[in-house]
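Go through this chain for my students:
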Amino acid sequence: MKVINLASGSDGNVTYIESENAKVILDMGLSCTEVVKRLALLNISPEQIDAILISHEHGDHMKGVDVFCGKFNKPIYAHRDVWQGLNAKLTRVKIENRRLFDEEQFEVKDLIIRPFAVPHDVPCYGFSFIENSNKISILTDLGHTTDRILSSVLGSQIVYIEANYDKKMLSQNEKYPLSLKRRIAGPNGHLSNEDAADFIVRLVIGGTRQIILSHLSKDNNTPDLAYNSIAQFISRYGIIEGQHVMIDVASQRPGVLFKLK
């Protein structure tokens, strides 16, 4: 199984996942043209894509999906609650390409996909992708974590986890009104560096060895700040980055291609 983040953050989110027989995209927050360009870096054409999954209706996760699916006639998978916000926005997508799922696992060819709800201000879902003994989990856009979410992703060799904001940067951001700060930091907003670090400790104890910090705010975080604060936090629990776990930081540019055999 392979996975690569093609864009991550406030300006758009796209992740490509590949099993032996399936090629899928999670979220499409860039334009169709830009997604096609980034797939070409992997020598993947749009025609080869088997499915697009959408985590939720916000534009940084579905900006290009209407044009892409209309042009290349690809199916979109989203939870039935997410579709309530998507239906009116996706005017080019054929009815037969609008695939609904509940919280039961489903398959795209040989790739098993397990969705799980995460707390956000609209219906939103994280996903685990499973092929044989390999498991990759991706969860962003959540205000807090729970034991249920942890149990959903335990056993993943690779986890993409949101580290959206630094608490001090957010509180001192003069561009953001108080109402927006409260929304971001609230239980249905986004995950701070500190909260991400606490979750990462539990993941590493459970066996995860590769973390990718994702969906960083361009206004309230930096890659260095996210990495350093999280590495320092987990070290208090005897977990050393580079020894017990590897931590990468996703950005708006294509990231590292990870392969699981």
Notes: DSSP finds nine helices and 14 strands in the chain.
